[in-house]
Amino acid sequence: MKICISALTDTGLERENNEDACIYCPDLEHPSWPEEGMDYYKPLSQAGSLLVVADGMGGTNAGEVASALAIETVSKAFTAEAAEAALSSAEATDSLLVTTIRRADKVINERIIADPDTAGMGTTIVLCWLQQDKARIAWCGDSRCYLLRKGQLRLLTKDHSYVQELVDSGKITPEEAFNHPDSNIITRGLGDFDSAVEPDLVSVEVEPEDTFLLCSDGLCGYCTDEQIAEVMQQPDVTTEMQADRLLHLALDAGGYDNISIVVANVLDDNAQPPTPPSTGLWNKLKKLLG
C-alpha cells in the first residue's frame, strides 16, 4: 500500500496563541518529521507511519510548552530501531505507544517542577500508528481519531472527559453533550493531573482507501461528526484539500479554539490517487476560502 499525509495547525479566530501541536512521520524505517504535508503518495513501509496531535492546556501557564514537550518526546522515542523492535508483536507495539505517552507525561511534570511558572500546564495526546495491516491508536484526553471507510465516518477514540462520563452513565444524550457547558473538562491528560497517566488503546484493520483523521477539539468540539463526515466524504479530493476544508469548517463555526488536523489516506499500490481540480483553480478556491 501507499500513503499520503497532510497536517496543519491554526490559532483560530479567538485565541492569541496556539497551544496545539501536531506532527507526523511518513516512514518509521527512516524517521523524519516534515513541517509541511505531503503532495504525493509514497509506499507504506513495513514499519509504517505515525500521526500525532496534542492539545495543550493551561492558557498563560504554558499549554503550548506542554504540547511541544509531548510532541518532542514522541519524535525522540520513535526511532527506526524502536519501531522495528516494537513490530515483533502486538504487545510490543502497545508497549512502545504507552511507554512513550508516559515518558511525555514525566517530561512535562519534570518541567513543572523545574519551572513553577508552568504549574497547571498539561496536554492531551492522540497517536495513530499506521502499519501495513492495522492501525493502533493510543490517547489521553479528548483529541480524537476518526476513520473514513467506504464513505462512512467512524470515531475510533472515546473522549476522556466529564461530559463523556455523563453520556456513559445515561445522564445526558450524545446530542446534549455537544453543547454542554462543561465540555472542556477532561479527566485524563499529560502533565499536572492527580493520577498517573493511563492511555487507552484501540486497534483497527487497515483497508485500501481508508482515510484517518486526527484532530484537536478545535474541530470536533465545534463541528458535529455529521459536518466533519460531509467534508470527508467529498469525492476526488486530496488529503491537503480535506485538511484545508476541515480547517475552514472549524473557522466558519467560530474558530473559538486552536485547530489541529492530520489526514492520512492509504491506497493500493496500483490505485490512482484522487484527481483534484487544476492547480490554478484550487489556488483560487483557497483564496476565496480565506
Written description of the protein model:
The protein is an alpha+beta fold and 290 residues long. It is built from nine helices and 13 strands. Strands 2, 4, 5, 6, 7, 10 and 11 form a seven-stranded antiparallel beta sheet that branches. Strands 3-1-13-12-8-9 form a six-stranded antiparallel beta sheet. A hairpin with a 3-residue loop joins β6 and β7. The radius of gyration is 18 Å and the shape is globular.
**Average residue-wise pLDDT:** 91
Main sheet attributes: strand count, strand direction, barrel closure: 7 strands, antiparallel
Distance between the termini: 34 Å
Radius of gyration: 18 Å
Number of helices: 9
What coarse outline follows from CA principal-axis ratios?
A: globular
Number of strands: 13
Supply the helix-strand structural class.
alpha+beta
Strand content: 25-35%
Helix content: 25-40%
Helix and strand run: EEEEHHHEEEEEHHEEEHHHEH
Low-confidence stretches: none
